[in-house]
Design brief:
With about 230 residues, this protein is mainly alpha-helical. About 85% of the residues lie in helices and about 0% in strands. The protein is built from eight helices and no strands. It starts with a helix and ends in a 5-residue tail after the last helix.
Length: about 230
């Protein structure tokens, strides 16, 4: 346990030392890293905890209520999921269950369009941060090399190696931190975008299924009325 603590302290000390060696460009790179972590936490909570739902199980529940002609219970089931996106979209269609197919479709489409920005919110910033962090790392590389060669040109022969090593160290540390931030942002963007797209596809799939269920319900209801004596 003591060995792990020493190694952890040594790693943290080395990280801080490397950050200090990276020069002034390290501060905007640090800001990019903090922004990336903040966006990852916020989007992960939204996309993996609040917005998703068990689509198959929920749709089976809605299907049972619709086939039993119990639209009110289906709407109550949608209301029980406060933050999930799919129930909110299906609820808009269920609230117009007594209307024609076009009005139901319009309600589902409007709710879907309203939900998509919530699912994709801030994801573009992760891609932007990845590009900015890469460019900042490159800027640090160029800045470090300029300082190194300028110092070598002016320094005494005995100090040239030290100044050259210091400038190259600044260049490499800035590059490393910039690339690390960019990699984290790119991986997070890919994972979170994939999750958002899966939820959108789920909404599209179950919206179509709800349309079929409501159409079948209306057709069955019309058939039952037509088969009544004296109809």
């Amino acid at each position: 346990m003591q060995t792990l603590t020493v190694q952890s302290d040594s790693f943290l000390t080395g990280l801080i030392h490397a950050f200090q060696l990276g020069g002034p460009v390290m501060y905007p790179i640090l800001f990019c890293m903090l922004a990336t972590i903040t966006l990852i936490i916020e989007r992960t909570v939204r996309l993996f905890v609040k917005y998703p739902t068990n689509g198959e199980g929920f749709m089976m529940q809605i299907e049972r209520f619709v086939l039993d002609n119990n639209i009110d219970e289906a709407i109550r089931a949608c209301n029980s999921s406060t933050d999930a996106v799919l129930p909110k979209v299906l609820k808009s269609g269920l609230q117009r269950a007594s209307r024609d197919d076009q009005q139901i479709q319009n309600a589902l489409d409007a709710s879907s369009l309203e939900a998509m920005p919530k699912l994709e919110k801030n994801l573009i910033y992760l891609a932007l941060i990845a590009n900015i962090a890469t460019l900042l790392g490159l800027l640090g590389t160029i800045s470090g090399l300029i300082k190194a060669f300028a110092a070598v040109a002016k320094a005494d022969p005995a100090q040239r190696q030290e100044f050259l090593a210091r400038g190259i160290s600044e260049a490499m540390n800035a590059t490393a931190f910039g690339l690390l931030t960019a990699i984290v942002a790119m991986v997070a963007h890919a994972v979170l975008s994939t999750k958002a797209q899966k939820i959108i596809e789920q909404i599209d799939e179950f919206s179509v299924k709800l349309m079929d269920l409501l159409s079948a319900r209306r057709y069955r209801h019309s058939s039952e009325k037509g088969s009544l004596p004296g109809a």
